[in-house]
Amino acid sequence: MPRTPAIQRHEWFAVAVAFVYFFCVLAAYYVLRPVRDQLSAAVGSTGLPIFYLATFIATLLLAPPFGALVARFPRRVFVPATYLFFMLGTIAFIPLFQLQDAIGARLLGSVFFVWISVFNLFVVAVFWSFMADLFDAEQAHRLFPIVALGGAIGAIAGPLLTKTLNELVGVSGLLVVSAVLLGLGVACMFALSRWSQRHPVAGDERREQRIIGGGFLAGALETIKSPVMRRMALLMLLGDAVGTVIYAFLADYNGAVNATREARIEFQANIDLATNVLQMLLQVGVTRTLMVRLGPQFPLALDGVVKAVMLALFAIFGGPWIAAVAVLTRASAYGIFKPAADSLYTRVDAETRYKTKNFIDTSVWRFGDVVVTSGFNGLRALGAGIGLTALVTVLAALASARVGWTAAHLLERARAQPRE
């Protein structure tokens, strides 16, 4: 049987544009991420529950209008409308930062932390929903790791731009750069929509004009009632538990060793740069091979094992080891776990693909942030040290491997079911 090429001839244009699209989306976020993260380092992990609670509330408030937008308009309308909203919101912070002395650095920083946290979840979730709507399951296994490379390179370019431009243009200039990158992403989305009209998914030739319909709370309801989506939500919560605990440890370490805002931004930019270089290597050398040959369940389980091993080592060594833990676990989360998890949504209907996936990737994620950071502070109040907290988190990582394996098998069995 002849081997299927990594990219077939008619797919090259779509893969190249999707690559650039994801580059722009993640570069837009990573340009601003070090600015956000230096605030959490300055405040420390004890302040994170308040930030994440505000982010969770903001995410819940945005979920109904997003659901209504998806229900009433075709994807060529609601996808760019979502990006336009975040472009305008980002630009709106420019005069606010110029009035920082009058507003107060802490208040403005807190609002900015919430905005960037919501911004990140929605722009990335919408991107992967669109990708799952653009390709079928077989294409997703071959192409998603390649498309994800664009995001990895964008996530490398973002911190580099921050390191280069931070002293020259300040935060206001970085906001402009981020908005422009999102605008380029919208242009890529329109190009992919035109390609989709010429190369529709088999059996769904009118997908570009389709109006999904349904209720604006359909995503939340489907998450509750569907056994598979409940597993996907639990998988998100377990992964978030691991990532958020590591983020809290890293924030405390950054705040302890770096006294100035510039030094904290530099530290976060270096962490992001190292993470995304490793993420790119994993996507090239590991993820695509596993997905094509063994299916998405293997990368999902591998990610949980990697996180468990790194946290166990952190429980032993502590201190500066958190930098290595953060780099490797984040690289695994976005280089191995994310392409595999997002490929599963090619096997569900359109309403689940956009509404339920978005609800899980935004509201469920930020709910997990609130619970995990509060629990983290609770363990610390009870006298639990770094080692014990890390070992507790190892259990969440191992549970993530198990749940990911099960969820993938359930959705893989839906291969023969027609897609809507």
Topology:
Elements: H1 12-43, H2 48-72, H3 75-98, H4 100-103, H5 105-134, H6 137-198, H7 218-225, H8 227-257, H9 261-294, H10 297-317, H11 321-343, H12 350-381, H13 386-412
Structure explained in plain terms:
The longest helix has 62 residues, at 137-198. 84% of the residues lie in helices and 0% in strands. It has 420 residues and is mainly alpha-helical. Helix 1 crosses helix 6. It is globular and about 55 Å long. It has a single domain, classed as Up-down Bundle (Growth Hormone, Chain: A). The model has no long low-confidence stretch (mean pLDDT 82). It contains 13 helices and no strands.
End-to-end span in angstroms? 30 Å
The low-confidence runs, each spanning 5 or more residues with pLDDT under 50, are none
Give the proportion of residues in helices.
Answer: over 70%
What's the helix-strand series? HHHHHHHHHHHHH
Derived from helix and strand composition plus strand pairing, the structural class reads: mainly alpha
Instruction: Using the coordinates shown, work out and report the CATH topology.
Output: Growth Hormone, Chain: A
Number of helices: 13
Please, what is the CATH homologous superfamily? MFS general substrate transporter like domains
Offer a concise description of the structure:
With 420 residues, this protein is mainly α. It has helices at residues 12-43, 48-72, 75-98, 100-103, 105-134, 137-198, 218-225, 227-257, 261-294, 297-317, 321-343, 350-381, 386-412.
